[in-house]
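does this look right to u?? iron/sulfur cluster version
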Amino acid sequence: MDSALCAQTDPDAFHPERGGVRAAPARQVCGRCEVRVECGAYARSTGQADGVWGGQTARQRRLSRRSDGARR
Ligand code: SF4
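got this back:
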């Protein structure tokens, strides 16, 4: 949490599903975040249903889960 770059930005930017914001700016912040990999893994393992985590939107996480399931 101490290394989370989003903690230094507008938290609403990380919730594009609430409307009014696009995911791209949040994803750009994630791209510079040193805990991006851990953040994305946490979001996937805990089934985070909304928000940008680790550079992925909720939709992208759902699609990743589906394709991971299809590979098994
Ligand atoms: S990778 Fe995670 S911790 Fe880092 S800025 Fe993005 S949402 Fe925040």
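The first helix runs from residue 24 to 31. idk if thats expected tbh
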